[in-house]
Amino acid sequence: MKSSIVFILTFIVALMLEGLVFPTSLIWYKPEWTLLVILYWVLALPLKVGVGIAWVLGLLVDLLQGGVIGQHSLTYVIVTATCATLYKRLRMYRRWQQSIFIFLLISMNQLVGFWIDHYTGDAEPTLMIFMPAVISALLWPWLFVLLRSIRRLYSIQ
């Protein structure tokens, strides 16, 4: 019961951060908050958080951002499945090594999302699509420490 409440609260905070409005000139510097929180919980507790939760949160992000319904669900499921497959190996890495892998995962998220946006006519090719992955990878060590301390504080296993 306690773990469910903590999961829900961390996801609500991530969705609130995802909903922050950035100026148009800074939109590429917005981290993927919801995906970062999903990836943390998949690494920490892969039997409790997985593809199903990623799919639901992806739908909520789609509704929040007003994009193509299912776009974030698809990308979150792909990234979460990849992370869940490799979680044992990723746990052994140092934080900076995990950040590199987080960069790759979120880059994959950005590429699939860009492909969908480009197919629907909403995006033009630019290398700036990777900037959220860079920002998210830089935030990963601090977010990891914060969420781990919350998990340990409430003894979630």
Automatic annotation (TrEMBL):
Compartment annotation: Cell inner membrane; Cell membrane
Report what the protein is called. Answer: Rod shape-determining protein MreD
Q: Which residues cross the membrane?
A: 6-29, 36-57, 69-87, 99-116, 128-147
- Pfam families referenced in this protein's UniProt entry, alphabetically: MreD
GO CC aspect terms:
plasma membrane
The family line of this record is:
Belongs to the MreD family.
Annotated keywords: Cell inner membrane, Cell membrane, Cell shape, Membrane, Transmembrane, Transmembrane helix
Q: How does it sit in the membrane?
A: Multi-pass membrane protein
GO biological process annotation, one example: regulation of cell shape
PANTHER family to which the protein is assigned, alphabetical: ROD SHAPE-DETERMINING PROTEIN MRED
Classify the main location.
membrane
Top-rank lineage group of the source organism = Bacteria
Q: What does it do?
A: Involved in formation of the rod shape of the cell. May also contribute to regulation of formation of penicillin-binding proteins.
